[in-house]
Prior knowledge:
Blueprint: E1 10-15, H1 29-36, E2 49-51, H2 55-64, E3 70-71, E4 80-83, E5 89-92, E6 98-100, H3 108-111, H4 113-122, E7 128-131, H5 133-141, E8 156-162, E9 165-171, E10 184-186
Parallel strand pairs: 1-7, 2-3, 2-7
Antiparallel strand pairs: 1-8, 4-5, 5-6, 8-9, 9-10
Amino acid sequence: MTTDRKMEDVVFITTHAEKGKGANPGMTPVGKEQIRALRGLLPKEPPEVVCGTARRNIEIARELGLTPTRYTVVAGDCGSLEEKMDGTRVIVFADGTEVPYNHDMVTTANDLQGPAVELVVTVKPLTVICSGRPIMLALAAAGYNPVDGPGKSGRVYKVTRDNGKIVRIEAVNPNATGDSGFGKAEV
């Protein structure tokens, strides 16, 4: 008897782990170690590896032993959100310019909603996207939000698709990097 079983249509988003400070920071040695621990959660030979353009996004691929096939700012750029000693939050751009973080002024997640969804639904099944939290924030802004929030660092997210639509996002490693649990969300 033959069964006509369709392969599950999934994409994996890996968010960078602990990062340094300053303009276009890379991951710390601890962050790199956290990412290497994720390798077994991903396809052995993904058909595509899509990287953001920030140093830390490219380091994800390197630490996982993957070779990027494509780079896009949709998966992450050189800007970095940091918290100062006095508790204020700033965005640090690639050239070192700092601007106060203001949700109404820094609109990356809202601006990337369409492109983030388009990227996730059009790449080949089993693609690995090496990114940061902004792509998860953009997917959340578009209505695709895991239960406990829009995304955390040092995670692998499995995005299940059906007929060109995102139907579920779940953390494959829900307790990574000491964060509290992270569950599944049906969308």
